[in-house]
What does this fold into?
Amino acid sequence: MTTDLAPRTAAFGALQIDYDARVLRPRPWTTAQSVWAAELLHDAPPGPVLELCAGAGQIGLLALTLAGSGRDLVLVDRDAVACGFARVNAARARPAGAVDVRWSSLRSALAPAERFALVIADPPWVPTASVARFPDDPASAIDGGPDGLTVAWTCLDVIASHLAPGGSAVVQLGTGEQVDRVAAQLAGDPASRLRVVGRRSYGSRGVLALVVGA
It folds into this structure.
């Protein structure tokens, strides 16, 4: 990973997003996650939006911009630098609703009673053994554990506890095989509150899974 910490700005849809080498660079293809989230917001129940593993906040901020939504947005990331950039980017984007950036682990970020109409989850999904293939990316932002799904499962646990009735989640993963594994495990667990009901694939760049309450 480069040691150049000069601030950078990237276009992300209609937004300008600040970040530096300590934060995962905004990927142009992930504007598709914002687009899908914005589509879902038009028919979502009342309530705020949550983004997990939010990084610099671009996906959630663009989703609200595209939807023209006045909903509040909560951005959660465990990295303090990413949260600092998320605050800067939220101030620039100026969504109609309030933006609450929380520097926290996923499991401790939310109060038990908080519920969200839509959840966007962007967990790292690169298997640990493959992280070295991406030297320009911060390892902590891409390392998804042995099978690339360790953080994704934590995100799904949080979604199960905090998704409002009638709400949905758009979860970013790396491959169709990862989505298949998540879908099969959720469907095979009678206690699971979630099901995968759709997906959109973007070649070698990634896959988005649509998750709803069971």
User: Anything to note?
Assistant: DSSP finds six helices and nine strands in the chain. The chain has a mean pLDDT of 96. The domain at 8-213 is CATH 3.40.50.150 (Rossmann fold). The first strand starts at residue 8 and ends at 12.
